[in-house]
From TrEMBL:
Pathway: Carbohydrate degradation; glycolysis; D-glyceraldehyde 3-phosphate and glycerone phosphate from D-glucose: step 2/4. This is Glucose-6-phosphate isomerase. Keywords: Cytoplasm, Gluconeogenesis, Glycolysis, Iron, Isomerase, Metal-binding. It comes from Thermococcus barophilus (strain DSM 11836 / MP). The keyword Iron applies.
Length: 189
């Protein structure tokens, strides 16, 4: 009837949560995600770097329960575009989420199904509220790992398909040493 409460240790330096399930995404797992396909191919052939790791503590997909996870998003670029997470809508689209930045610097790209986008900068201490229905992707705009914690409903699920096909309407790139958020020339409505 009652589940057992627990506390776990989250290491703020490494992002590792003890006893968590670890997921690793390499650049080769992200075919079609970056704008510069040639730069993607070259980097995959050269070293196929790990783009990010997720340490998740997840419950059964039940309404009312909560999951939480840290993400360690490594610094790097594909062409001019900074490394990012795949990004997703929630399978149950009306589920919200909270992100809390722990280390490094970056930001979150959010987008409605109609393509209205927003970029929110994240530094240690920034808490981001992801409202229901908004897709979300994090971006590492710095030169050290960008680490954050996310808390989300256990029944939210991930819908990757829409973002995989259409991308986000904005991209985050480096131009003249600056972080620039601009329109994605490949964005399809
Ligand atoms: O699932 P991605 O879009 O690749 O993002 C990576 C991860 O970021 C956060 O930790 C979210 O809470 C996770 O649900 C998500 O899996
Ligand atoms: Fe999410």
């Amino acid at each position: 009837m009652y589940k057992e409460p627990f506390g776990v240790k989250l290491d703020f330096e490494t992002g590792i949560i003890e006893n968590a399930k670890k997921l690793v995404r390499k650049l080769s797992d992200m075919k079609g995600y970056f704008l510069d396909e040639q730069a993607w191919k070259e980097l995959v052939e050269k070293e196929d770097p790990v783009v990010y790791e997720v340490y998740a503590i997840e419950q059964e997909e039940k309404d009312g329960d909560l999951n939480f996870a840290t993400t360690v998003l490594y610094p790097g670029k594909v062409g001019k575009e900074f490394f990012f997470t795949k990004g997703h809508y929630h399978a149950k689209a009306d589920r919200a989420e909270i992100y809390f930045a722990l280390k490094g610097r970056g930001g979150m790209l959010l987008q409605t199904p109609e393509g209205k986008a927003k970029f929110i900068e994240m530094v240690p201490g920034t808490v981001v509220y992801v409202p229901p229905y908004w897709a979300h992707r994090t971006v590492n705009t710095g030169n050290e790992p960008f680490i954050f914690l996310a808390v989300y409903p256990a029944d939210a699920g991930h819908d990757y398909g829409t973002i995989k096909e259409k991308g986000f309407s904005k991209i985050v790139v480096e131009e003249d040493g600056k972080v620039v958020v601009k329109d994605n020339p490949k964005w399809k409505e």
